[in-house]
Each structure stands twice: as C-alpha cells, then as structure tokens.
Specification:
globular, about 45% helix, about 130 residues
Length: about 130
C-alpha cells in the first residue's frame, strides 16, 4: 500500500506552494505547521538542500472526530503535505500522506472510514494544485 499520493508539476516552487495552500483551503484544511527543510538544514547542518517545504494540514472537524474516537490518534496528526523542487530545479513534486496507511496501525474501523474520506480530500487538493 503506498503511503502517499504525489503529483509532478512544471510550476515554480513558490507557485506550487501557493496553489497547494489554496487547494488545501478549498478542501477545508488549515495549515497549522510549516517546516522549511532547506532553511533548517542550512542553519543546523550548514548544508545546501533544494527547496522542500512540509505543511502540516489539519481538517479541524475530522481531527475532532478522530480524537473523540481514539484519544492517542494525535500522534499521527496533522496530515503532512510536501512541496519539493525537483533536483534539476525544473518543476516540483507535491505529495500528501495517505491517512489510511497511517491509520492502519490502529485497529479501529471507525477511524479507517474517516481516514478514507480525508485521503480523498487530500488527493483532490493535490490534483487541483497541479491543474
């Protein structure tokens, strides 16, 4: 089972980030965390790395339902979405975690059903960002 959904785009890194944020918002996700990997690696390791951003996306209603169902599920939240420049510098990849793969570690059918819904929303957002 793949653990992510990914699309390649010819968009610039900045445009891919902007379009991903818009697409997530349209699917009722908010970005609650943001990690700039290139900046972190430069500051902490003094190495250069291609533009790579991790967005922690959260659908508050889904997170609320999940936490009511399984109080430790918070260790698997938020849903991570990455935008990374291709190594050649031309175009980007946008990818999101597959919540069904993440939640498969938890034996709770109610969470699986909700994870399938959230996974579909994330796939729609990723697909919309590149079209």
């Amino acid at each position: 089972m793949p653990y992510y959904h990914s699309r390649i785009t010819s968009l610039s890194f900045d445009e891919a980030v902007a379009r991903t944020r818009e697409a997530l918002k349209a699917e009722h996700f908010g970005v609650i965390t943001e990690i700039d990997i290139a900046q972190t690696f430069k500051q902490q390791l003094d190495v250069d790395f291609r533009p790579y951003l991790i967005l922690g996306a959260c659908n508050p209603a889904a997170a609320y339902d999940a936490l009511k169902t399984e109080d430790k599920v918070g260790v698997m939240l938020p849903c991570n979405v990455i935008i990374q420049a291709s190594p050649s510098g031309e175009g980007c990849e946008i990818a999101a975690v597959d919540p069904v793969a993440s939640m498969s570690a938890i034996d709770n059918p109610a969470l699986t059903a909700r994870a399938e819904e959230i996974g579909a929303s994330l796939r729609r957002a990723i697909d919309a960002a590149v079209t």
